[in-house]
Automatic annotation (TrEMBL):
It is found in: Cytoplasmic vesicle, Autophagosome; Lysosome. This is RUN and FYVE domain-containing protein 4. It comes from Tichodroma muraria. It holds the Pfam family RUN. One of its GO terms (cellular component) is late endosome.
């Protein structure tokens, strides 16, 4: 199993975060806080009318104060519960939402790259992750 001490885990999470932040449009909340991929994931899963335990779990963690911190916790939750590919796929289903959140260079806007990324993420479902949440 992959644990918190794994170098590969840190590299994987950094690459996932890079993908989710690459060419992300700058958006602000009502109070001026910068939105990040966490907000994109929450909105995408809400649009699919999916009650996602990971969203509820991360939102309940009082120690997490920033969207980036919440996003990182969500990625870890999804890895542990083998839900990363499915959760991201649900967020990527709506082309209008993708264009609302990402500029044209985002790999998520390319059907070819999107399929390849999701295919690789589905392969991660075979890996066991034992991470502190």
């Amino acid at each position: 199993p992959v644990t918190d001490g794994s170098r590969e885990l840190h590299s994987l999470c950094a690459q996932l975060e890079f993908l989710l932040q690459f060419d992300l449009k700058e958006k602000r909340s009502f109070f001026g806080q910068r939105k990040d991929y966490w907000d994109f994931l929450c909105q995408g899963l809400a649009r699919c009318r999916q009650e996602h335990e990971g969203i509820h779990f991360v939102a309940s963690l009082d120690k997490l104060k920033t969207p980036v911190g919440r996003g990182r916790a969500f990625l870890r939750y999804c890895l542990v519960h083998q839900q990363l590919a499915e959760s991201l796929q649900l967020c990527l289903l709506n082309p209008e939402s993708l264009c609302e959140w990402y500029y044209a260079r985002s790999p998520f806007l390319s059907p070819k790259w999107r399929a390849e990324i999701l295919g690789i993420l589905y392969e991660l479902d075979c890996v066991t992750f034992h991470l502190a949440l």
